[in-house]
Design brief:
heterodimer, A: 633 residues, alpha/beta, six-stranded antiparallel β-barrel, elongated, B: 264 residues, two-stranded antiparallel sheet, 35% helix
Chain lengths: 633, 264
């Protein structure tokens, strides 16, 4: 095979340092993005040798005269269908800038790809087709640019040749788009009439647009500035990891804003712990110059502290003078991209910086379709819609509102393991410090003594804990003694695991940690009731022996563990909630009995096989147990 | 911060995210200029260590200079080197054009290495400016069980929030230098004094711009015999970097087909 050999030309010019600006190009499908990009590359002499010939050949093969789009639409499907599927990046130079042009798809179904591209941009070119004017997708893109924090925007009105370069038509579209951008607080730097196909207005203006006095596209690109992380804002250093490779304990992360200096007093959010910066660590080992004593916004660093405080991924290091807030409840404006709508009550994972915390949507204040500019019902945010929501977090995390810090005021939402949306923090309610000062907490004793309740109810307080596989009969067995105890004047309260998951425990999923927390909370509530003289009847799968042991520890001596021991095949054949069927079909992950393990108690206070023993006999067994332990009088 | 500082900081950020998010990582080391920069960046990210193995998927057809380089620097840099062989050409899809078919041995070798070691993340040194399908890549790019790239449904990447979840049996490709250019690689290599294989420098009027297998990689005409001269040359050239890689040019979509089925 012959080697493709081409001569390289040596340039007499040394390399000059040039600012690098990332510009996203957005617009409705078929409004001419690819043509404009091709034209920009051509006009700046950026096309590699042989590219034009290759594009002509590709176009001819598909029976077209000449198609610029084939330059960026690298994928076979894109070329065959004439659409851009995914975002792409291409480089060229203007007179004074290196430009990374981020091409994005215009089709609604590829909006997530458009966001992936646009969230990296310093500036935007918004393209509108003269004959079509401002369309749905144009409005969506305006909203997205606003939410992504892109503030430098130039509008390009394309295909002016189709309307004979009519200034009146240009003025109409200009008024409309400028009005919409203003509503979002955005101010375009220019609105430019062009014909990308012919080249009018791209590198320079031609006689066709003699009535227009503003810049051409290349000139406006040449005026955009890189958006840099702000070193003047207060320090924010989100922790990515803590490394212990040698005798140092290095806290690693990127300085999002501000500066960090050796000797600074810092505070860690959300824990509130304080320390002082001992050193900025680096490899190769830094010299002892002043430069190694400080780091600023944008730098990835490693630091060591003067004291061994607890620091973990997701924590944020900030100055003791202007600390990051510990946020537990927040309001955010978000764009939602998943097919399933974001609803009030939806559970999700919230990411801010390197922190990741479970949360729940506790309110939806606003929901709009940015394409239609019409408000929707405020109970859900549909796919590709924008909304204002309130989220309550399971644990506090460090955050800032977007107005105060654009870098740490960004929020990303994840459901079912996929990023589904994101936006900006509008407001936060400060959380209590994560580690409360125990000394300041003084429990208040009940005014009613234990003897008094026993007198009235005819029993002491106790916890009856039913554990067993799903559909083993726990709820049935729990409800029967509840009824019996109540009938004889007692005070039973049923704590059903599933029922409490709709409220108290609605922020919990089914991971190992969440199940443990679920059991802990059930135990805490049950313990409190039992201390007030009530018989708390808990019905919960509680599959892990370790978690049940902790529940026994929380409750104390009046904890009675009852294993509802129906065999798995019996449980599965009952399947009153259809869970086994779902789990077997793969639709229900980590379902006990099918997807995860159940650890049967080795030494329960009582074991009842509901496949063999009728409910009435089982109740009698339970009453015998309670009487024998002097719970019942 | 100048541009190289910014590129470096972003790459270190990505390395640390990958290390925090994935359990069984390996860094793919092809011994070329890009993956050498990657190893350097990893050492910066982790304070002198590379805390995961470096994997050389070896076609057995590299230039002798590359093997010499590998053996010297894996020892000098204290790397945990894994070398995995590739299956013979007969094992590769025979509908591919010859050079692409030869290159695809590496994809097959990669699949075998993944199965053998159970990696959930592979750090790879591709760059967007090299080739148009690479320009469409994500930083965290999920691959199917067969290593395939589903370009139609790539995950959302918001700012620097990457998607670390992956279905069972699949893996993630992590691309810490996706945002660099060829010129950036050379400027950084010069600044940091990172060793390079001599094949990149001009001898008898020719040099390699991109190193692959000896039988399907060709030199370009050039008189650049120092890094300074290479940088000056790149500033003016209109010749694509991979013009010397035969498999890219055999048919309109030869390279796309390679990449969709798991090639880097």
């Amino acid at each position: 095979m012959n080697a493709p050999v081409s001569p390289l030309v040596a340039s007499p010019q040394p390399l000059r340092p040039r600012p690098l600006v990332r510009i996203v190009i957005v617009g409705h499908v078929d409004h001419g993005k690819s043509t404009l990009i091709g034209r920009l590359l051509h006009e700046t002499g950026s096309l590699p040798d042989g590219k034009m010939e290759q594009l002509k050949a590709v176009s001819a093969r598909r029976g077209m005269s000449f198609e610029w789009a084939f330059l960026l639409d690298a994928l076979q499907t894109e070329r065959d269908q004439g659409i851009t599927i995914d975002t792409s990046q291409i480089r060229f130079r203007t007179a004074s800038r290196d430009i990374v042009l981020i091409d994005t798809p215009g089709h609604t179904e590829f909006l997530r790809n458009m966001i992936t591209g646009a969230s990296q941009a310093d500036a935007a070119l918004l393209l509108i087709d003269t004959s079509e004017g401002v369309r749905e997708q144009t409005r969506r893109h305006c909203h997205l640019l606003q939410l992504l924090g892109v503030r430098q925007i130039a509008v390009v009105i394309n295909k002016m040749d189709r309307v004979n370069f009519d200034p009146a038509r240009f003025a109409t579209i200009k008024t409309e788009i400028v009005g919409q951008l203003h509503q979002l607080g955005l101010m375009p730097t220019a609105v430019i009439p062009i014909s990308a196909r012919n080249g009018d207005g791209v590198a320079k203006h031609t006689s066709s647009t003699a009535w227009y006095s503003g810049p051409a596209v290349l000139e406006v690109l040449d005026s955009f500035a890189p958006a840099r992380p702000d070193a003047e804002l207060p320090l924010r250093l989100p922790v990515q990891a803590v490394y212990k490779f040698d005798d140092r304990r290095i806290i690693a992360g990127r300085v999002e804003t501000g500066r960090i200096c050796v000797g600074d007093d810092i505070v860690v959010a959300p824990t509130g712990q304080r320390a002082r910066i001992r050193a900025i660590e680096a490899w190769p080992a830094p010299d002892r110059s002043a430069a190694s004593q400080t780091a600023s916004a944008g730098q990835s660093v490693g630091i060591t502290l003067d004291s061994e405080i607890f620091v973990d991924r997701g924590h944020v290091i900030s100055p003791a003078s202007t600390p990051a807030k510990a946020v537990q409840r927040l309001q955010a404006r978000v764009f939602w991209l998943q097919q399933a709508p974001l609803e009030s009550g939806s559970n999700l994972t919230v990411r801010i910086g390197t922190a990741e915390v479970r949360g729940q949507v506790t309110a939806i204040a606003k929901a709009i379709d940015p394409g239609q500019l019409s408000a929707q019902g405020a109970d859900a945010i549909a796919q590709n819609h924008v909304g204002e929501i309130e989220i309550t977090l399971a644990q506090p995390l460090a955050g800032d509102i977007h107005d105060l810090n654009p870098r740490t005021g960004r929020i990303v939402l994840e459901t079912a393991g996929h990023i589904g949306g994101g936006g900006i923090l509008l407001a936060t309610d400060e959380a209590k410090p994560q580690i409360p000062a125990q000394a300041d907490i003084i429990p208040v004793p009940s005014a009613v003594a234990g003897g008094e309740t026993a007198e009235r109810f005819g029993h002491r307080g106790a916890v009856i804990w039913f554990t067993g596989l799903p559909a083993s009969g726990k709820s049935t067995l729990a409800r029967a003694p509840e009824r019996r105890l109540f009938a004889r004047g007692g005070m039973p309260i049923l704590l059903d695991g599933d029922t409490l998951r709709t409220g108290l425990n609605s922020d919990l999923g089914f991971s190992r940690a969440d199940r443990a927390e679920n059991v802990r909370r059930l135990a805490e509530v049950a313990a409190h009731l039992s201390k007030s003289g009530i018989i708390a009847i808990v019905a919960a799968v509680s599959p892990q022996a370790e978690d049940r042991a902790r529940a026994r520890q929380i409750v104390g001596p009046d904890f009675y563990e009852i294993h509802v021991a129906a065999p798995l095949d019996v449980c599965e054949s009952r399947d009153p909630k259809g869970h086994y069927r779902k789990a077997r079909s793969g639709a229900l992950a980590s379902f006990t009995g099918v997807g995860s393990d159940y650890e049967a108690p080795s030494n329960p206070d009582l074991r009842i096989n509901t496949a063999e023993r009728a409910v009435d006999y089982a109740i009698a067994d339970i009453e015998t147990l309670l009487a024998r332990r002097d719970v019942l009088r | 911060m100048d541009r190289l500082d910014e590129l470096e900081a972003q790459s270190i950020y990505i390395f640390r995210e990958a290390f925090a998010r994935l359990k069984h990582l390996a860094l793919l080391w092809s011994l070329g200029k890009d993956s050498n920069v990657m190893i350097w960046l990893a050492r910066k990210a982790f304070f002198g260590r590379v805390p995961f193995p470096v994997l050389h998927v070896d076609t057995g057809k590299k230039f002798p200079e590359m093997y010499t380089f590998r053996d010297r620097y894996s020892a000098e840099w204290n790397l945990k080197l894994l070398t995995e062989p590739c299956p013979p050409i007969e094992a590769v899809d025979n509908s591919l054009p010859p050079a692409a078919r030869s290159a695809a041995r590496k994809t097959e070798g990669l699949k075998l290495a993944l199965a053998k070691h159970g990696f959930d993340g592979l750090i790879a040194g591709i760059r967007r400016d090299e080739e148009p399908t690479r320009a469409k890549e994500r930083i965290f790019s999920p691959r199917g069980v067969e290593g395939q790239w589903d370009v139609r449904s790539q995950p959302l990447e918001f700012w620097d929030q990457f998607n670390p979840r992956l279905p069972a049996g699949a893996h993630l490709r992590v691309h810490p230098i996706l945002h660099w250019t060829e010129a950036d690689i050379w400027a950084y290599t010069r600044r940091e004094q990172i060793p390079v294989i001599p094949l990149y420098f001009s001898q008898n009027g020719k040099r390699y711009r991109s190193l692959g297998d000896a039988d399907i990689t060709f030199p370009v005409s050039s008189h650049a015999s120092t890094i300074d001269e290479i940088i000056t040359e790149l500033d003016a050239t209109k010749v694509p970097e991979r013009s010397g890689r035969a498999m890219d040019h055999e048919s309109e979509d030869a390279f796309e087909r390679l990449r969709l089925s798991g090639y880097l």
